[in-house]
Specification:
The protein has 283 residues and is an all-alpha fold. The protein contains 10 helices and no strands. The two termini are 16 Å apart.
Length: 283
């Protein structure tokens, strides 16, 4: 997500020099209004969900009555059956099963676009990804007895504070954009190597280094798809909000982050202001 955000900032800064001030102001107000609207909607949805959960818990608690529920007691200690609560629970369970079924279908369709595990030679330095060469793809069953070890390895892997294999591509992208800005110049600072604006060398220096962040994003997206396949086949306990990384999502998120980078460079706002609501919507 971050490398593509950096790509967007490069073009956002260029547009900032081209667009008039009134257009930048209109775009800024429009974008911030839309972000505020979507954030409020998502917040209200989360609040309604929490309120409904609390209401269901209250209605399902032990309730007493002056007649003792017909059992000869002053106060009944038996749980009162509530049709509304039961219907809501049944509806929520049905919707949850439908979401699980749709996610399963998406995962299985994505597995078909990945190389078969039994024919794939390990090319990654990650031992977790190298352990896939004995597995089939496109199925949720497991017959090797390594599910517990695999889930434990995934949990330890995701619990690391500094995942180096994710940090060094980001650092490389930052360093590349920094060197590009110094050599190209801009914001009143001349080029360090005397490149003139709008020359062929200028555009070559602008576009050519962007291939590295694009490659990093595609490579990391492919790794996330492989990791998602391991989780699904290993019956990893996904929780609410976990993202199943399939091809559509690993392409959609970088595209949206590129737009966030353009907004950051054009309007002078932080890219996180745009990506925050997007990640909130994603779970």
């Amino acid at each position: 997500m971050e490398p593509t955000t950096l790509i967007g900032t490069v073009f956002g800064v260029m547009l900032n020099h081209i667009f008039p001030n009134w257009l930048i102001l209109v775009l800024l107000v429009t974008l911030l209004s839309f972000i505020t609207y979507k954030t409020i909607l998502k917040g209200n949805t989360i609040q309604d969900k929490e309120d409904n959960l609390k209401l269901a818990l209250i209605k399902s608690t032990l309730k007493g009555g002056p007649n003792g529920g017909g059992r000869g007691r002053k106060w009944s200690i038996y749980r009162r059956f509530d049709v509304e609560v039961a219907a809501r629970r049944w509806l929520n369970k049905t919707r949850r099963r439908r979401r699980v079924r749709l996610i399963r279908e998406e995962d299985e369709a994505d597995f078909l676009t990945l190389p078969p595990l039994n024919d794939r030679k390990p090319t990654s330095s990650d031992p977790l990804l190298q352990d896939q060469n004995k597995r089939q793809f496109g199925t949720f069953s497991s017959d090797d007895g390594k599910q517990a070890q695999r889930c434990s390895a995934i949990e330890r892997r995701e619990a690391r504070v500094f995942p180096f294999e994710y940090l060094w591509p980001l650092a490389l992208s930052w360093l590349l954009i920094l060197v590009q800005s110094i050599l190209r110049g801009g914001h009143g600072a001349p080029s360090a190597i005397g490149i003139k604006c709008n020359s062929s060398t200028y555009w070559l220096l602008t576009l050519l280094p962007l291939a590295v962040p694009i490659s990093v994003s595609l490579w990391m997206g492919y790794r996330l798809r492989l990791l998602n396949r391991i989780k699904v086949q290993g019956n990893y306990p996904f929780v609410e909000g976990d993202i199943h990384w399939i091809k559509r999502r690993v392409l959609m998120f970088p595209a949206v982050c590129t737009t966030a980078g353009v907004a950051a460079g054009l309007l002078g706002i932080g890219g996180g202001m745009v990506k925050g609501p997007i990640m909130l919507e994603a779970g």
